[in-house]
Amino acid sequence: MCTQEPRWLTEEEMSAWLGLASAMIRLPAALDAQLQRDAGISHFEYQVLAGLSMSPERTMRMSELAQLADGSLSRLSHVVSRLEKRGWIRRTPDPADGRYTLAVLTDDGRDKVVASAPGHVEAVRALVIDPLTKAQLRQLTEITRRVNRAIDPDGACPAERSS
Q1: Is 137 found in the same domain as 114?
Q2: Which of 50, 75, 116, 143 could pair with 71 in a Cys bridge, judged by C-beta atoms 3.0 to 4.6 Å apart?
């Protein structure tokens, strides 16, 4: 049995950790609130629609879309069902491999992303980008890259794939 003393956080480390933990909780809630208020969709729904809008032919396998949106396949399936009812997404079997299902962004879905994007980008700017200097923004990029790499060394994290 290991009796090694835990590596307790220093005061400076605790301050950094608590600040990050607070931001991890409060930022998604703030982004979600803005999208709910202005567009009537959740942040996760926006991520799904935006992910499809940027993919070739506005189409993606459900499993890849779940990974891109940082959600489980089950959660994605429920969300896509809601988005299908609104006419923003349709599902179809993958013609290349029938074991997979494709999510396809409809024209109405694309219109929803286009209408929702300006408010979302403004919220991201106001909450994250504008409060930082250019040097801090570069530091934030490197910090999040390192944290994401520690969380996911194999690089499955969407942020790491786009870096």
Answers
A1: no
A2: 75
Distance CA 91, CA 162 (A): 25
Instruction: Read off the pLDDT band of 154 (50, 70, 90).
Output: confident
DSSP string spanning 8-59? PPPHHHHHHHHHHHHHHHHHHHHHHHHHHHHHS--HHHHHHHHHHHTSGGGE
**Tens digits of per-residue pLDDT, 32-64?**
999 999 999 999 999 999 999 999 999 999 999
Question: Which pTM was predicted?
Answer: 0.85
Domain membership of residue 96 as a residue range? 31-118
Q: Domain for residue 8, yes or no?
A: no
**Phi/psi of residue 142, nearest 5 degrees:** -70, -40
Number of domains within the chain: 2
Structure tokens of 110?
A: 């694309």
